[in-house]
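thought: fold this chain, then report.
action: predict
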Amino acid sequence: MTRWLPSLLFDHDFNSEKAGKKDMYNACEVSICIPTCNRPELLELAIRSCLAQSYPNIHILIGDDSTDDRTQELMRVCYAQERRIHYMRNATPLGQGANVSFLFDRAAGDKILLLHDDDLLEPDGVETLLKLWDTVPDLEVAFGDQYVIDIHGRTDQSQSAQCNIDFLRTHDAQGLQSVPGRTGLVSMFPNNGWLANTDLVKAVGYRPQYGAGCDFVFGVELCLKAKKIYYIKRYVSSYRRTPNASSVVNRTSLRSSALEALRLVSSLDLSQHLEPARRVAYKRMVPVAVSTLSRNDDPVSGFRLAMRHLHAYHYGLSRRFYYHMMLIGTSLFRRARKFHRM
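observation:
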């Protein structure tokens, strides 16, 4: 259940506002969806980055899962007069996945942009992506590069450049993607800061049951459904690495994003031309999944997974392979000791 704030300033009728007079520049309305939970200080920075956009026709939808009133108080004190913000307090926390899904359902703009509450948009981020529709009118999805920032908001230029390379966002890859589905499978598509047609986003949906892997799963399904996706080699957002991020907290659990992503990729019925992309995905995910399984006392599953996907370890030529074999052996030893103590 969602509790609406009493002030009508927080519950604007965006659909009726869209019917107002528009010039050609701001004819397209962009809904920026921000799920948040107990991080008002970071949320405020995210909001400021949205309000500072060079493109004016935006609406910011905030779904608040907080267990205290700090975020609601921030919104009441600082943003009660800001008609571009639509704030919703969830009486019972929905969880991040369901919160994002709720915001997508509520979005009334022509296009949707997802921004997590600890991340930021570059001042021209929306405009940079939106202009790509001038080049490709029937474009459906656009994304660019991400800066990597720390908890204090400091940008690491070298780490940012390497991060984008690691996710295959390179100069050679810039432009309209020839195989859209590959973009999601190989993790090229970012976790947020992208822009997409609202009807496509709503048709795909955001599935909360994938837990920490929700962003990846959504990205894969969006890219598989889209026909035209454009990547621009330009920074449009910042990704903040925080100690309490869900991807970090759940990294070593059986609900980690790597295991959830692996389950999805393994279950997909793909056409033959996308199988090479699935192989690239396995190369990225399998070693992480093997490590996670071993650390959670399931070495047998980890060993079987490694043997099925030896290509992920360069067929045994990777040091990581032997390190993971050691982890599996250690896990087997722990299980044997537990068994003898019973």
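thought: worth noting. Residues 291 and 316 are 15 Å apart (CA to CA).
final: tokens above.
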